[in-house]
Amino acid sequence: MRETTLCFPMRERSDDGTEVLLIEKRRGLGEGWYNGPGGKLEAGETPRECAVRETREEVGLEVEPGALEKAGELTFLLDGEAHTFCHVYRTRSFTGEPTTSDEAYPEWVAVDDVPYEQMWDDDHLWLPGVLEGKTVAGEFRFEGGKPLDKAEFVGHDLEWGVSFAAGQK
Ligand SMILES: Nc1ncnc2c1[nH]c(=O)n2[C@H]1C[C@H](O)[C@@H](COP(=O)(O)OP(=O)(O)OP(=O)(O)O)O1
């Protein structure tokens, strides 16, 4: 099973609204869809280190590992088998300005205007709560064979208010 991360940088707008930094993926799994910066863990890397690296590589923001707030653990199943385990983080503490990379076009989006119709089919089930500050553990079932982003989303289970202990991955 692949171990991956997603990171959602957030900021307050001057008019009191909140924005989240999304990427439009330019290649790989979920190409053409919006998501947070993220990707697969490299050898010897912790999930936090992966989230920091992927955020730097994909959008050019610098985040301290300790500034990442663990918000979710998501398991994606394909045809009954675990395919991807994803650690989800949010943060309001980062430096730099988002820049386009080979992998991603970054875009600040109002949390009320997240384009769920241009995202993975499961995202509208868990991302709104994560952007509200909740924690979640979820299992999402896909069927139809590889690749995962061409398979059909068929079911899910969610548990909110999960405790991710301080210092945990
Ligand atoms: N179903 C669903 N909803 C939301 N997000 C995701 C999924 N499935 C997923 O795989 N993901 C996330 C998890 C990861 O952050 C990305 C895909 O990562 P990865 O396959 O590593 O992306 P690539 O761009 O191909 O590879 P890297 O080189 O960036 O590691 O989507």
TrEMBL record:
One of its GO terms (biological process) is DNA protection. GO terms for cellular component: cytoplasm. Coiled coil: none annotated. It catalyses: N(6)-methyl-ATP + H2O = N(6)-methyl-AMP + diphosphate + H(+); 8-oxo-dGTP + H2O = 8-oxo-dGMP + diphosphate + H(+); O(6)-methyl-dGTP + H2O = O(6)-methyl-dGMP + diphosphate + H(+); 2-oxo-ATP + H2O = 2-oxo-AMP + diphosphate + H(+). SUPFAM superfamilies: Nudix. Pfam families: NUDIX. Belongs to the Nudix hydrolase family. This is Oxidized purine nucleoside triphosphate hydrolase. It comes from Natronorubrum aibiense.
